[in-house]
Amino acid sequence: MTNFTASQQAVITQKNNNLLVSASAGSGKTTVLIERIMRKIEAGTNVDQLLVVTFTNLAAKHMKQKLENQLNAKLSTLLNDSTGAATASPVVKRLRQQLNLLGVANISTLDAFCLRLIQRYYYVIDLDPVFRLLTDNTEGLLIRDQVWGDVREKLYADQDSRFAQLTANFSNDRSDDGLSALIMRLFDFAQSTPNPTEWLQQLPAAYTIETPTVTASAFYQQQLLPLLQETGQTMQANLTQAIAVAQTGELEDKTIKGLTEAQQGVQTLVAQLPTASWNDLREQIATFKFGRLKKTYKDEPLRTSAAANVGQLVQTVKDQFKQLTENYFAADEAQVMAVMTGSADLVTELVHATLAFKQAFAAEKRQRHVLDFSDLEHLTLQILTSQDDSGQGALAQLRAQFDEIMVDEYQDINSLQEKILQLLARQNPGNMFMVGDVKQSIYQFRLADPLLFLHKYHDYGQNPAHGDRIVLAENFRSVENVDNLANLIFSQLMDAPVGQIDYDDAAKLKYGPKDYPADLAQTTSLLLYQSGKAAVETDEDAEPTTFSIDDPSEGSITMVAQKILALKAQDRPIYDRGTGTYRPFRYSDAALLVPTRNHNLTIIDIFKRLQIPIVVNDAQNYFQTTEIRIMMALLSIIDNPYQDIPLVAVLRSPIVGLDENQLVYLRIQNKTSDYFQALRDFYAAYPGREHEAYGDQVYAKIDQFMSQLTEFRDLARRNQLVTLIWRIYDRTGFLDYVGGMPAGKQRQANLNALYERAHTYEAGSFKGLFQFVRFIKRMQEKDQDLAEAVSETETEAVSVMTIHGSKGLEYPVVFIMDLDKQFNQSDTRQSALLDREAGIGITYLDPKTRVKYPTLPRLMTQQVVSQKLRAEEMRKLYVAITRAEQQLYLVGTVESMTTAAEKWRRVMQDKTLVLDAQSRIMAKSDLDWLGQTLIRHPDLKAYWDGEQPAYSLAEDQTRVTIELGDATSVAPVIPQSDAPNTAESSAVDLVEADLDVDVDQVTQQQIQRLLNFKYPDQVATATTAYQSVSEVKRVFEDPDTALMQANPTVSVQQSRPSSRYVTEELATPQFLQTAQAPTGADVGSATHLVLEQLPLDAPVTTAVVEQTIAALVMKTILTEPVAALIDVNSVVAFYASELGQQILATPNKVHREVPFSLLMPTWRLFDDFSKDDPNKILIHGIIDGYLETDAGLILFDYKTDHVAQPAALLKRYTGQVKLYAAALSSMYAPQVVAGQYLYSLTQQALIPVPKSL
């Protein structure tokens, strides 16, 4: 039985009030949640009387499985501990009842619950119950594009609207995609609120200046003023600190006086902020001056150091003044008023366009009878808020049904979901159970709102009547040093103003496990690669470089790989908590957590070279993978070849294989036209020119490409998209080619995923290559990748995943990669910023001057969005650190440790545990934060450079080390021949490593013999050992050649086209064939069937034949279209012939449709085989019929071929008939075949076939 802590026990047993559980990482919240459900069941609550909401379908599935296991375990215990009478006890019956109810229990995501609720109460909102859910994002996006296209055209046609100006404001000269993207983003954002229309309609209010002056307006007084005051207070605090440093360092009085005057000036400015005019404030900020400060004191290093610290603090204040000037006070009051007025009109038009799209999109979905996931929640909200009797009855019924509402991962819900849950919940006493950890809320991009958790956390702490609050702080996952490190870092980083959360004593992790041994090595280390190069400012919006010669991450990745190899070589470094013993390191013990997928292909390459197995589920952004980009370029030029960039991409790719010089060679054939025209000119002119070796080489590649392009373009016009894509894979061999590249299985899985995506696309109401290419491009622009393609993976391998993907997982050894990667602030640089509270902040384009101005609401929104993004970056780092169980490595790249430490030491003078807000705000990467939080720790004393921290961390128990690497200390990634694991390497790995190996003469001879081996029966591979008569009938087509005596043969090469399984193309599967009119072969087979089924005990008349055909149709053996084409008269005519009358005279001697098999020597069929070849070929067939007579057997074969003269059938079928005769002779020996005939049903002629000589 599990031993629960006091806080866990309190969570399990609490009742009669709402409960918010703040469960830290590794605190066992799922176990506690399951136990609370079990206790509810034991107390009399049925499992279907609980509403349990999870964040993912997988979490819901696991929760149901765990509940089932608990119920079964409880049931087994009762049955094992009691007598036979226990099976009828009420407790046992109840547990079995709960197992039965588990299948219908409401344990699911909120979306799934909403779907069930709508299916149950659709009548409350007059919804058509016949609908389907858009589970695939493809169709939903295509419908959106179609609807928005229609709405956009109507808005353009409205002469009175400002839509054209709106488009110009948010788009460029080439397209209006910028506005389209904004409309979709604004629509999605609004849909996450309980009332989207109301939220949208209040957006223009922020741009309304209702007073004659800016500073008197409500916007300035309520929103901008507090921000300016906060900035002024920060400047005052920096100057106060600068004065203290100057006084402590005994700097000259002139410096101290100048600092004091500056502080007083800032204080005066802050006091005037509420009342001064805009232009006065603008003037004061722009002209604010600082006195000159003495920077150096000769031969006095302590005073010089103090002066440097003062200089840094003053420079920070100067930068803040500069930001105020450039961001807020760049324009005078008249310009600000004009920009605000114009922006208000634009935002009003933007809201109008978004609402028009919202209405049209809803109408289109109604017409198609489809719903998307957003609809589920809004329709549920409509049902629960309906004021009529049916709506109120539904709400009352649901509230009565659920004794408790349990919400897992509560930190990741949004305001719309919260509204639904609150409507379902009871009041006095409350029945909501919410569990989560706001420090692990990392789904802001999915519009999660962690502030909901925070507000409730503070409310329940201050007002217990609203609900109880319990904190689960014990971390049962990690060793103590990981807990200490997390507490050390986040107690300095996280506070409410900067990180939205106060990382106080209640938030700190507490060491929970009792089973980790005291001698377990608790490694927490910084792995820093010194590149010798300064970090480059990068644009997160820029497309990542696919092919990089010197990837800056290679050094740190190699350090990680070598660390993993070192762990593998150690003697049992991992403690197994299940067995209570130490064990060797397994590759699956380690996980690499990456902030983005941009370097995953580099990780794959380096680990493969070092022969470390690795699993990367999402190797790179799907649409950025090389193989998908090549395929999309090819599809683009199949649609329209007059596109230079996609065309050159395909020509340069392995599909065509031109190099750079060959591309130039083609370009100079026609320097002025587009590239495809130049290619066509070369293709048309080169055959008539004087040839050269280089030109021949280029022409050969272009010839193949042009023929394939023509084939593909023709196919694209006539066939489905999936047919085209698979034909490309088949004709170019591209699918096979990528399989031989690094991460080949993953690349092939990506191409197969593209095929599946095309299939899904065409399964809807969307068709055509152009629309598909356009759709994919739109998805790329929106950064909406396909679901990652899953390939076969090894289980015993190092895992690589994003931090988001790692949430909820744990590993003995964790490497947090790329900590030097700059924070993604792209959301703060968009032309329009969105926030639930701040609204929308836009950049205004003056229609006359074409100058762009950042509006004041944009600057306000930018501050809010930036703070939220920064707080989420902190939470992502927290999630990453708390994935580690035993060993944690923090990995990054620095220019040098000296320059990094110098930057980190700027916080040494901070006098409080929490770092200065400005230092944390100015940090550009996780590594900056880690350096700031660790530099004051005694373990990094070697990097203090003589300074002493103003706040001591000497009592902290964390142990941390720094391991440095550089180009000389980090070994190359190509394995050497004497490496310890070379013996275990695969042959492919050794060949790819290009190793030089000494080989003795005997071994060389054996290698030569093996490599030069030729299969002795190569000729046999061209045919099969099992042949039908129709496949080998040409062997016997010469009527003058006897079957056995004259050895009729044909070469294997000649027989290839008609031999089984050796043709170049396989037949199309029947289920893929398109229905068409009956063929001649269909009619011939049907005629044979009728001849087989005809009764022979009476004369064969037209009526008898027609009755036989009708009976076959009734039995569905024949179809009516085929039956209608059977020539009844020809059948009757056969039985009127001399042979037919002979058959009717002795019907019991007739055999029809007789199957046979015949073994024949290979050399009698194919002249490539020698006469001493012992192999034989099994020939099978069906004889139409033969008649036993006293003189011997009479063989006959019907033919429905349309020929001009009956004799033509002799040339065509003599060999086949003779083969039948040979089979009959073998079957009836010593009886002979007395006669053999072909009967032409179309000519109604009996044709004797000459016998063999």
What can you see in these coordinates?
There is one protein chain. The chain is an alpha/beta fold. The protein is built from 46 helices and 28 strands. Strand 26 (1192-1199), helix 46 (1207-1228) and strand 27 (1233-1240) form a beta-alpha-beta unit. The termini are far apart. The model is unreliable at 539-549, 786-793, 975-985, 1034-1065 and 1070-1074 (pLDDT under 50).
Radius of gyration: 41 Å
Oligomeric organization of the protein chains:
single chain
Biggest sheet statistics: 7 strands, parallel
Q: Which consecutive residue ranges, at least 5 long each, have pLDDT under 50?
A: 539-549, 786-793, 975-985, 1034-1065, 1070-1074
Structural class: alpha/beta
Strand order of the largest sheet: 15-16-14-17-21-11-22
Strand count: 28
Shape: elongated
Mean pLDDT: 85
Note the total helix count: 46
Our measurement of the CA-to-CA distance between the termini, rounded to an integer number of angstroms, reads 94 Å
Helix content: 40-55%
* Proportion of residues in β-strands: 5-15%
Summarize the structure.
The chain has a 7-stranded parallel beta sheet with strand order 15-16-14-17-21-11-22. Strands 3-2-6-7-1-8 form a 6-stranded parallel beta sheet, with helices on both faces. Strands 23, 24, 25, 26, 27 and 28 form a 6-stranded mixed beta sheet that branches. It starts with 5 loop residues before the first helix and ends in a 5-residue tail after the last strand. 48% of the residues lie in helices and 12% in strands.
